[in-house]
Write a structure and sequence with these properties.
Deoxyuridine 5'-Triphosphate Nucleotidohydrolase, Chain A, 4 helices, alpha+beta
Length: 252
């Protein structure tokens, strides 16, 4: 049967209909025409160049209140605490609260939830900001809106309840990701190392120039002294006295 009132659910409609659709449900989480969902028990944050072994990074389990960070330039998968259901006559839309977006966290996953879906939601996010974003389990950071379809749809999800982060979605980003911040740091490190090397070479050249100048000065000094000795006139020998010959002995 076709409906004529296909539209987004108001806050009043959310309060009337959400109790069986969101588990656990809290009436105070209704925010205008949306409902606020919170960070759940599993997260995955992509490794960066500071990670000792990127191949060992996997899904992390969180206890209630456990905190974590998403470094700048890194991806993450965040699971909702709540199990969400979407009726066959509705469609849901999801996003991140504005105050978290302003920190640089961007939702890069799908922006809708199909009719008939039931389970926890996995948000793929990217930290486009300049600093790490700090979050914790139970923190209300997601929003969901419901909209009625013009009729109950036979084209709907029909399966088991989705729980946890699917390991298959992690495979695509399981390697080390080079963020802009990381690349900038590497460029600065290389620039500093190159500058230090240039300064060291300049110091070595200065040292060898000084040694060369001293050696050249000594050679010149020895050469000048040798030339002086070689070219200076030598004094004449003193004249010898002339004596008369002596007569032979034994003759008068």
């Amino acid at each position: 049967m076709t409906k004529t009132n296909a539209m987004f659910w108001s806050g009043e409609t959310l309060r009337d209909r959400l109790a069986p659709l969101i588990e656990p449900y809290a009436p105070e989480r209704v925010d205008c025409a949306a409902y606020t969902l919170s960070v759940g028990p599993e997260i995955y944050v992509s490794p960066n160049d500071q990670t000792a072994d990127p191949t060992t990074v996997t899904v992390r389990k969180l206890a209630q209140g456990d905190a974590f960070t998403i470094p700048p330039g890194q991806f993450a998968f965040l699971l909702t605490e709540e199990i969400v259901s979407v009726p066959a006559d509705a469609l849901a839309f999801i996003s991140i609260r504005a105050k978290i977006k302003f920190r640089g966290l961007v939702n890069v996953s799908g922006f809708h939830v199909d009719p008939g879906y039931r389970g926890q939601l996995t948000f793929a996010v990217f930290n486009a900001g300049p600093v790490a974003i700090h979050l914790k389990r139970g923190q209300p950071i997601f929003l969901i809106w419901y909209a009625s379809l013009d009729r109950e749809s036979a084209f709907k999800k029909d399966g088991a309840i989705h729980r946890g982060i699917d390991p298959e979605v992690i495979t695509g980003i399981s390697g080390e990701l080079q963020s802009f911040a990381g690349l900038s740091k590497k460029v600065k490190d290389v620039d500093k190392a190159l500058g230090d090397r240039i300064h060291a070479i300049e110091r070595e050249q200065t040292y060898y120039r000084v040694i060369g100048a001293l050696a050249l000065a000594l050679v010149i000094a020895f050469t000048v002294n040798w030339l002086k000795d070689a070219l200076s006139p030598r004094p004449a020998p003193p004249p010898q006295a002339i004596t008369a010959p002596q007569p032979p002995l034994g003759r008068p």
